[in-house]
Amino acid sequence: PAAGPGLRAAHGRPPETHRARRRTQAPRRLLGRMEPAAVRCLPGEPKLTISFRLDGSNKRMLRDQDEPVGKVLARISNGLAKSQGKAKKSKKKKKGTQPGQTTPQQEPPPPAVKLRFDGEEVADTVPNGAAWRDGAVLQVGDVAYSVQRNAPTFVTAELPASLLSGFPVCPNLEVEFGNLQDCEFTWFKENAPDASPEAAEGPPSQDAGWTEVGRRRVHVPSNHDIGFRLKLRCTPKDGGRGGAPKELVSAGAVEAGPGVCTFDNRHAYTLKEAEWPAVRVVTYNILADVYAQTELSKTVLYPYCAPYALQLDYRQNLIKKELAGYNADIICLQEVDKGVFVDSLTPALDAFGLEGVFRIKEKQHEGPATFYRRSRFKLLSRHDIVLSEALTSDPIHSTLLEKVSANRALKGKMLRRSTVLQVSVLEDLHKPGRQVCVANTHLYWHPKGGNLRLVQMGVAMQHLSHVISEVTPGAPLVFCGDFNSSPHSGVFQLLSETEVPLQHEDWSSSGPEESCSMELRSGFPPLLSACSQPAYTNYVGGFHGCLDYIFIQPDSMQVEQVIPLPSHQEVTTHEALPSVAHPSDHIALICDLRWNP
User: Fold this and answer.
1) Tens digits of per-residue pLDDT, 391-444?
2) Which residues contact 331 (CB under 8 A, 6 or more apart)?
3) How far is CA 141 from CA 39, 74, 300, 447, in A?
4) Percent of the chain with pLDDT over 70
């Protein structure tokens, strides 16, 4: 029936057909289930990106922020018209035409492409940066999209290559415009090929073939998962605002774990975090992959270790479980490969509440990393140095440099080393203003390098004394690391007794050519080795000894608990370290320190 005169008067134009009216109302009706159009637009950046799915393919447009939006809409319209034209030509070719037969050429008009906000059409002259607002609706023909501007988005989303039963699976995730703590996670296990009839009769879902097994960020597969792949569906979020979910499927199936590891009994002492004002500290040389994968390592240093147990993916499973189970507040690691820090340890320990900083040794492609619990500490400042560079460039070391320069051979060897000292000043979040200086290093390794290690430690202590006096006066020092020094060494004496005399045997440890006798003072009161002097912290086929330490200032901190080291039987079950049950040739030191408020 014809429309009444009231309708014509209200709109000032001929009445719309029912079909046309339905088309204009479609965006409103479909709002609840519109496809997303993701727009990334940051102030200060000249370009923005518009991403959406059209005709079965993903579209991603990079446009100038100051370009009129009409140009983008025209580009979308023309692109769609071209793809539809190609599809029609392809159909005609398949159908074929008789000789002499002609087909009328009737090109359809380009589909209408509009951008609306609050029901109003956005003018073509509005620049992109202002036009693509959150909540706007992009209408492409009959399809409507909800514009999500700077919505939470995963820019990195990966599952580890190796999955072991009983060991945490920590996805490597990086979110933009969101917060990992707000994100939602759902884990699925692949169903067996002969899924039970009961499962087949269950309600249909988009996860047919998968069974939900967890909803935490980190998932620990069980023995029932062995032989099956895992899938993670993760939704990026910022508070209540969500973005497009991602689905990750593991490359391989869950494999059987090694059973009992050397650290499992130690975890019984660290089931809970230390209670304030106590602080749990860990130091651990985790064995860099650049050293574990050499022929020397496989055939000479660790011939007793199964080759698969030296593989990085396998060892990382063990390291992540071991570190997570200590529930530490401060973790100082040595021999951390750059890739391991970025892709493995940072995402894993972040999931367990820890943040970290890393300092690479350029020549070795590995270095120390320091992690701290974000609920306990805030990182105030970093004061890392390369020991050899500091010796020659910082005036505070001029006296030491003068003494070392007396022996050209020793000085040359010192300057060739890329050893770093990582220094982090942390503030106690429970008591603002209360700070601690955490130092982490890995000294020169050679058995005859005692003289070089003394010079390195001399530079380190002078630097630490300067940092504390200038940056955080009165803050206690916690000095962790692999010092490659036994309790009888000059380095240990320097720290525990404050000075090393001229005649100490380490000054001539590498022979008369590199001998360099001097008196060396630490600049600190006597420090205490918090975990005392274990029989060994490094146990390999040809050597065992105590090389790793956590030194503290006993006037500021007292030892509350030292976590027992693995028994000798546990360490030697597979002859030596590393092994299928222990990921490094070193053993972690862990202690709880009572830090006087």
Assistant:
1) 999 999 999 999 999 999 999 999 999 999 999 999 999 999 999 999 999 999
2) 281, 282, 283, 284, 323, 349, 354, 356, 370, 371, 372
3) 20, 12, 69, 75
4) 88
Q: Residues 6 or more apart from 140 whose CB is under 8 A from it?
A: 54, 76, 77, 80, 111, 113
Residues 536 and 567: beta-carbon distance below 8 Å: no
Could you tell me the pLDDT band of residue 90, with boundaries at 50, 70 and 90? low
Of residues 517 and 455, more confidence is placed in 455
Can you give the length of the chain in residues? 597
Strand pairing class (435-442; 477-482) = parallel
- Hey, is 291 helix, strand or coil? helix
Judge whether residue 14 has pLDDT over 90.
Answer: no
pLDDT of residue 364: 87
Quote the CA–CA distance of 592 and 296 in Å, as a whole number: 37
Contact (Cβ atoms closer than 8 angstroms) between residue 379 and residue 428:
no
Q: What is the pLDDT of residue 20?
A: 38
C-alpha to C-alpha distance for 75 and 115, rounded to whole angstroms: 13
| Tokens 């995402």 -> residue | 347
Q: Which position has the token pair 């490359």?
A: 251
Of 343, 398, 396, 338, nearest in space to 365 by CA: 338
In percent, the amount of the chain with pLDDT more than 90 equals 82
Paired tokens of 518:
């001097």
Q: Where are the alpha helices (DSSP H) in 241-393?
A: 264-267, 289-292, 295-296, 312-325, 338-340, 346-351, 387-393
Q: Which residue, among 353, 339, 302, 355, has the nearest Cα to 582 in the 3D structure? A: 302
Is residue 201 within a helix (H) or strand (E), and if so which, with residue range? helix 197-201
**Quick check: helix, strand or coil at residue 260?**
coil
Q: What is the pTM of this model?
A: 0.86
The model's pLDDT over 246-273, given as tens digits with 9 standing for 90+, comes to 999 999 999 999 999 999 999 999 999 9
SS (H, E, C) 187-219: EEEECCCCCCHHHHHCCCCCCCCEEEEECCCCE
3-state secondary structure of 28: helix
Distance in angstroms (rounded) separating the CA atoms of residues 158 and 577? 30
Place of tokens 């501007």: 149
Query: 38: part of which helix (H) or strand (E)?
Result: strand 35-40
Burial of 517 (0-12, 13-18, 19+ CB in 10 A): middle
Number of continuous H segments (helices) and E segments (strands) in the chain: 17, 32
Side-chain-side CA neighbours of 207 within 13 Å: the count stands at 18
Q: Residue 3's Cα: distance from chain center in Å?
A: 65
* Average pLDDT for the chain: 90
**487 Cβ partners below 8 Å, 6+ apart?**
529, 533, 546
- The predicted-structure confidence for 461-484, as pLDDT tens digits, reads as follows 999 999 999 999 999 999 999 999
Q: How far apart are CA 579 and CA 381, in angstroms?
A: 38
Cβ count near 204 (within 10 Å): 6
Q: Determine the average pLDDT of the residues in 516-544.
A: 96
Please identify every residue annotated as catalytic.
482
The residue with tokens 């003068």 is 402
pLDDT value at position 388? 98
- The mean per-residue pLDDT over the stretch 478-498 comes to 98
Residue 582 phi, psi dihedral angles, 5° rounding? -150, 125
What are the helix (H) ranges across 55-136? 69-95, 128-131
Residue type, 258: P
